[in-house]
Amino acid sequence: MTETRNGKGLLIVVSAPSGAGKTSLCQELTRTLPNLTHSISYTTRAPRNGEVNGKDYWFVSVETFEKMVAERAFAEWARVHQNLYGTALATLDDMRNKGKDVILDIDTQGAMQLREKMPDGAYIFILPPSMEILEERLRKRQSDREDEIQRRMAKAREEIAAYSSYDYIVVNEEFQTALAELKAIVTAEKCKVAYINNSWVDTTFLGG
Amino acid sequence: MTETRNGKGLLIVVSAPSGAGKTSLCQELTRTLPNLTHSISYTTRAPRNGEVNGKDYWFVSVETFEKMVAERAFAEWARVHQNLYGTALATLDDMRNKGKDVILDIDTQGAMQLREKMPDGAYIFILPPSMEILEERLRKRQSDREDEIQRRMAKAREEIAAYSSYDYIVVNEEFQTALAELKAIVTAEKCKVAYINNSWVDTTFLGG
Question: Which CATH number fits domain A11-38+101-205: 3.40.50.620, 3.10.310.30, 3.40.50.300, 3.40.1110.10?
Answer without folding.
Answer: 3.40.50.300
